[in-house]
């Protein structure tokens, strides 16, 4: 898929860009500033090189041909990631792509979207990754909205010919950036009122090695997993970690 990231220079955007580029998607990392976007792509390429060298050091002479069995990332995945990352301004990153991922802090999401929507082709899927977090003492909760959730609130400004999907809200940037480790045991929740767009974004999530995209239901379901993100962050702080995640079992 061709994917543009609004605010792709941030923590979550970079992590998602890397994971998606590693499995062959063409990624446009968007920024308000072109030079910043290009600098971030250079830094990501350095990060990929460093991970490749570390894996080579860990397994000298093995050429990493058996690494996959040990559940490390492969040299092919890392090489592929470097080919698939490009930096540009947000205005250009949202053009001529299959999906746009919104990865800016929630408080800027509505204004940013309103500026960029005219540049998006009808039919492009908008994937809302933002979480309307609010800190109360030592606890994280979510802001509340008359529409029911942060994604529903943002969707109210989006024209009908742009389907909105909520996804990747409960996976941490920290976990995504550790590209030497495939995402074993990690699920992400995905919701939309548009079934076709929902299926495509579940497939996109599943294309990342080991990650499981769990189809939850209508876009209103994002209310639940926005709150689940607040729970994860509160757990992370209490247990001094940055990488808790959810796994659905039956
Ligand atoms: N970090 C996580 O682990 C995580 C996990 C799940 C979901 N999320 C959600 O993902 C979103 C991004 O999180 P993040 O940690 O990546 O945020 P971040 O690093 O603080 O910011 C992301 C990008 O947003 C852009 N930005 C900042 N201020 C802006 C403004 N006033 N107007 C327009 N764009 C602005 C910046 O890009 P430019 O300066 O290049 O334009 C920045 O690099 C948030 O909504 C967050 O809730 C984050």
What does this protein look like?
The structure is a single chain. The chain has a single domain (about 1-240), classed as Rossmann fold, CATH 3.40.50.720. Helices cover about 40% and strands about 20% of the residues. The protein has 9 helices and 10 strands. The protein has helices spanning about 10-20, 35-60, 75-85, 90-95, 105-115, 150-155, 175, 195-205, 220-240, and strands at about 1-5, 25-30, 85-90, 100, 125-130, 135, 140, 165, 185-190, 210-215. Helix 1 links the parallel strand 1 and strand 2. NADP nicotinamide-adenine-dinucleotide phosphate binds near residues 7, 33, 104, 108 and 129. The site of NADP nicotinamide-adenine-dinucleotide phosphate has 24 residues, from helix 1 and helix 5.
Q: Distance between the terminal alpha carbons, to the nearest Å?
A: 31 Å
CATH class: Alpha Beta
* Count of individual helical segments: 9
Shape: globular
Report helical residue fraction. 40-55%
Strand residue content: 15-25%
Sheet with the most strands, sense and barrel status: 8 strands, mixed
The total count of strands amounts to 10
Number of domains: 1
- Which structural class best describes the helix and strand composition? alpha/beta
Radius of gyration: 18 Å
Q: Could you please say which CATH topology applies here? A: Rossmann fold
Largest sheet, order of strands side by side? 3-2-1-4-5-8-9-10
């Amino acid at each position: 898929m061709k994917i543009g990231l609004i605010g792709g220079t941030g923590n979550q955007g970079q992590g998602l860009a890397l994971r998606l580029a590693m499995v062959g998607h063409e990624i446009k990392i968007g920024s308000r500033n072109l030079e910043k976007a290009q600098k971030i792509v250079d830094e990501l390429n350095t990060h990929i090189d460093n991970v490749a060298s570390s894996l080579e050091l860990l397994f000298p002479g093995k050429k990493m041909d058996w690494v996959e069995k040990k559940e490390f990332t492969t040299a092919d995945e890392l090489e592929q990631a470097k080919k698939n990352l490009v930096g540009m301004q947000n205005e250009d990153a949202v053009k001529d792509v299959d999906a746009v991922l919104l990865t800016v802090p929630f408080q800027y999401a509505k204004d940013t979207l309103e500026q960029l929507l005219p540049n998006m082709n009808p039919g492009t899927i908008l994937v809302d990754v933002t979480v309307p977090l609010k800190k109360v003492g030592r606890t994280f909760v979510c802001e509340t909205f008359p529409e029911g959730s942060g994604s529903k609130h943002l969707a109210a400004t989006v024209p009908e010919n742009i389907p909105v999907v909520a996804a990747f809200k409960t996976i941490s940037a920290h976990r995504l950036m550790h590209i030497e480790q495939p995402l074993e045991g990690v699920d992400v929740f995905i919701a939309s009122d548009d079934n076709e767009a929902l299926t495509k974004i579940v497939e996109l999530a599943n294309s990342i090695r080991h990650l499981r995209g769990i189809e939850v239901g209508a876009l209103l379901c994002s209310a639940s997993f926005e709150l689940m993100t607040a729970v994860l962050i509160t757990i992370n702080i209490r247990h001094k970690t940055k990488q808790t995640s959810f796994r659905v079992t039956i």
